[in-house]
Amino acid sequence: MRAAFASAVNPEEPLSGLTLGELPLVVPDGWVPVDVRAASLNHHDIWSLRGVGLPADRLPMVLGCDAAGLDPDGNAVAVYPVVEDKADPRGYSLFSERHPGTLAERLAAPPGNLVRIPDGVSFAEAACLPTAWLTAYRMLVVRGRLAEAGSVLVQGAGGGVATAAVALAVALGKRVYATSRDPGKRERIGRLGATAVEPGARLPERVDIVIESVGAATFDHSMKCSAPGARIVVCGATAGHRADVDLRRVFAMQLEILGSSMGTPDELAALLDLVAAGTVKPVIDSTFPFADTTAAFTRLAEGDVFGKVVVEF
Ligand SMILES: NC(=O)c1ccc[n+]([C@@H]2O[C@H](COP(=O)([O-])OP(=O)(O)OC[C@H]3O[C@@H](n4cnc5c(N)ncnc54)[C@H](OP(=O)(O)O)[C@@H]3O)[C@@H](O)[C@H]2O)c1
């Protein structure tokens, strides 16, 4: 089968280890094959090519965490990206870490990882959801208790998780503020229905939920923007994981600082239903045919993406 895989890892020039070629499909006992129709890229794929979480002894490794395609009965399915994994210290791994990933014509997955795609959702849209969108959904709806909130701040809003959080929070009827360093991205965030501001700017109100994937560079601002009882939900630390936390503000304002990782298959199904109902539409930056996967990676690595980069088979 045709696949995009890491044939080498290189911390300085990650794309030099990206290869498009033929690899065999291996289906472990109890797993099923999926015909992949669309896959989407994440920064995780570039980290893998740098060798982060992907030691050289696991090469060649098919890249990609996110996919949508057809199960053996011909049903349209999205592939939930988390695989239970006793060999991993976290107890789980994502596709492309220990098991071949989603950037291939065919993929092997546990049957419990296949979530039916409802009518009205394209393969490209479904392929955007399993990692970045699912993470944003859980951060907002489950960990952040969105139903109790009036307002949301999303930090670093040009990012994959953050763009999804803006689109979801707007679609679910909240007042949404978003920071981005880039004026062009602020303009596009504004078009999604959020109030876009420069990092560190004073907001017109204190918010009930902050979506934090940036980390040290924005955390102090996240604390200062929080209303009493607010939830600051953290899924990543792109700009540094050692933040300065004023504990007086945590107890005086009764803030909750919550970690969040990925989501559950049921949460992925709920997200697919929101897309099918037309409540929200995944933001797709660009779509490439499989033969142009290297161009898709180049686009992501150059950092000027707004939304998801999709590869179609
Ligand atoms: N826990 C989980 O389950 C999970 C799942 C997915 C991702 N993650 C993590 O979440 C983070 C975001 O992932 P992503 O895929 O959305 O990444 P991404 O697309 O690279 O977005 C990161 C965003 O952070 C902002 N940023 C970066 N450096 C900054 C700095 N120095 N100061 C201020 N803002 C900065 C940028 O926003 P602007 O350019 O708009 O300013 C950038 O677009 C990553 O750390 C990733 O590992 C965690």
From TrEMBL:
<dbReference type="InterPro" id="IPR011032">
    <property type="entry name" value="GroES-like_sf"/>
</dbReference>
<protein>
    <submittedName>
        <fullName>Zn-dependent oxidoreductase</fullName>
    </submittedName>
</protein>
<feature type="domain" description="Enoyl reductase (ER)">
    <location>
        <begin position="13"/>
        <end position="311"/>
    </location>
</feature>
<dbReference type="InterPro" id="IPR036291">
    <property type="entry name" value="NAD(P)-bd_dom_sf"/>
</dbReference>
<dbReference type="InterPro" id="IPR020843">
    <property type="entry name" value="ER"/>
</dbReference>
<dbReference type="Pfam" id="PF13602">
    <property type="entry name" value="ADH_zinc_N_2"/>
</dbReference>
<dbReference type="InterPro" id="IPR051603">
    <property type="entry name" value="Zinc-ADH_QOR/CCCR"/>
</dbReference>
<keyword id="KW-0521">NADP</keyword>
